[in-house]
Design brief:
- It is a single chain.
- The chain is built from 15 helices and 27 strands.
- Strands 4-3-2-1-5-7-10 form a seven-stranded parallel β-sheet, sandwiched between helices. The chain has a six-stranded mixed β-sheet with strand order 12-11-17-22-26-27, with helices on both faces. Strands 8-16-14 form a three-stranded parallel β-sheet, with no helix packed on it.
- The radius of gyration is 22 Å and the shape is globular.
- Bound molecules: coenzyme A.
Length: 434
């Protein structure tokens, strides 16, 4: 059948499409800035019609109507990456969290994450009947392949991106044409502390490196300190406005990449509307499923692969907690370990974990004698190469427990050093000298 006739036949209203969702089903939702809007709203409006429907999602930028209290009891949520709108639901036991590396998610779909209905967003079809998944590729194709019913919101405002991001009209069961702006994530101007961290990280980054930048304020601060570097590349889980700025200046040109030369590679994009316009139809940017971008073996093929991620706290042995504050699940592991391990295996690769020395307005040291009880270790002490704060760089790889502790105290906030020194002297039965 001609795809245009098929398209016409499949165009549907959200209220009609959600009739394909049955009690006990698992619905897999699109991710980050590409989270669908119209179908989840219709599901929330009709929540009383559903019982025990499992919703799998990761970060959902903007409002998530399915997480409104009136939907609890009708929809159960599971997620392996929390954001502002899902954190409280997990804390109050109205949703659950499961630990998983991001690169494993596509393989888990259909198995550990049963996928009956896939609800995603894409562009309207091109001349050949292909829709681009736009700013989020990650686990979409795996879900679309496995689902009994595929519901796609074809959004006029979704940027068209290239590479492994296409779905054909023939793969879709319900097409919901719509036009709404994507939710935006605006980068704040880096604080002095973040700028100092950015400068310390930049001092470790050599020309010709391929970078992965994680999520949060620190990656943006690092990017803003790379103005004097040359021939950088990007192979990342995600990127935001800071990368586009360096592409425009020619500092990010990918000319020395050993895989996908000249291209910026990621699995999702999150930022301002200006960024979404920049990526629309931009053939220098390629999106791939997360089981490719975040595969440590693929990452390790990049020369000078450099991963820069952030964390919430670290203990004196170098154990890094990036996703929990004590018992509270704050975010998820995402691709942190995928990239730490990939970068460590790469030729001349390095991995950096960077964080401000304090949290909560300077009242808490993020370098601690022990992790807050209940915290999960995200990146083990065996994996960390460099730990960076605004006070400097601690190289942990190849260092003994005593030397690690000394170096971590050196980059802790001065107000908290006495408390850390006390623990050091107790633990190692020796005086601490700077
Ligand atoms: N104890 C108590 N509170 C803490 C804390 C600690 N040890 N560390 C941080 N906090 C508080 C902060 O004060 C802040 O509170 P506020 O919102 O009231 O200001 C909040 O927790 C968030 O901390 P912050 O450092 O600002 O977070 P961020 O937005 O920069 O994100 C991570 C940092 C670590 C949460 C984020 O990078 C992450 O989720 N990493 C894991 C996943 C990952 O690395 N993926 C990489 C591939 S994309």
């Amino acid at each position: 059948m001609n795809w245009k006739a098929e398209y016409k036949r499949k165009v549907s209203r959200a209220e009609q499409a959600i009739k394909d969702i049955h009690d006990g089903d698992c619905v897999v939702l699109g991710h980050a800035a590409a989270v669908p809007k119209v179908v989840p709203q219709a599901m929330a409006n009709h929540c009383e019609d559903y019982n025990d429907v499992l919703i799998f999602h990761m970060t959902t930028l903007g409002d998530n109507p399915l997480l409104h209290p009136r939907c609890f009891g009708h929809f159960r949520h599971v997620s392996n990456f929390l954001s502002g709108n899902s954190r409280d639901a997990v804390s109050h036991l109205n949703a659950d969290f499961f630990p998983a590396y991001f690169h494993d998610v596509p393989e888990m779909i259909g198995d550990e994450i049963p996928c009956d209905v896939a609800v995603f967003q894409a562009t309207p079809p091109n001349e050949e009947g292909y829709c681009s998944l736009g700013v989020s590729c990650d686990y979409a194709l795996a879900a679309i392949r496995r689902a009994r019913s595929v519901i796609i919101e074809t959004n006029e405002f979704m940027p068209f991106t290239y590479s492994n991001t296409m779905i054909h009209v023939s793969q879709i069961d319900h097409i919901i044409p719509c036009a709404y702006h994507l939710p935006e994530l605006h980068s704040e101007t880096p604080t002095e502390v973040e700028q100092a961290i950015g400068r310390n990280c930049a001092s470790l980054i050599a020309d010709g490196s391929t970078l992965q930048l994680g999520i949060g304020a620190i990656p943006n601060a690092v990017l803003s300190e790379l103005g004097d570097k040359n021939d950088l590349g990007i192979h990342s889980e995600m990127f935001s406005d800071g990368v586009a700025a360096l592409m425009r200046k020619g500092i990010v040109n990918g000319s020395r990449k050993t895989l996908h030369k000249g291209k910026v590679v990621a699995t999702f994009i999150m930022g301002s509307r200006e960024l979404y316009d920049f990526v629309d139809g931009n053939e220098n940017i390629e999106l791939y499923p997360v089981d490719y971008t975040n595969d440590p073996v693929i990452i390790a093929r990049q020369y000078r692969m450099t991963s820069i991620n952030s964390c919430l706290e670290v203990d004196l042995m170098g154990q890094v907690a990036s996703e929990t504050i004590g018992m509270r699940q704050y975010s998820g592991i995402g691709g942190q370990i995928d990239f730490v391990r990939g970068a460590s295996m790469a030729r001349e690769g390095i991995s950096i974990i960077a964080m401000p020395s304090t949290a909560a307005g300077g009242t808490i040291s993020r370098i601690k004698p022990f992790l807050t009880p209940g915290s999960a270790v995200s990146t083990t002490r065996n994996d960390v190469k460099y730990l960076v704060t605004e006070y400097g760089i601690a190289r942990l790889k190849g260092r003994t427990l005593q030397h690690r502790a000394e170096d971590l105290i050196r980059i802790a906030h001065p107000s908290f050093r006495p408390m850390l020194i006390e623990e050091y002297e107790r633990r190692f039965a020796t005086h601490y000298t700077l």
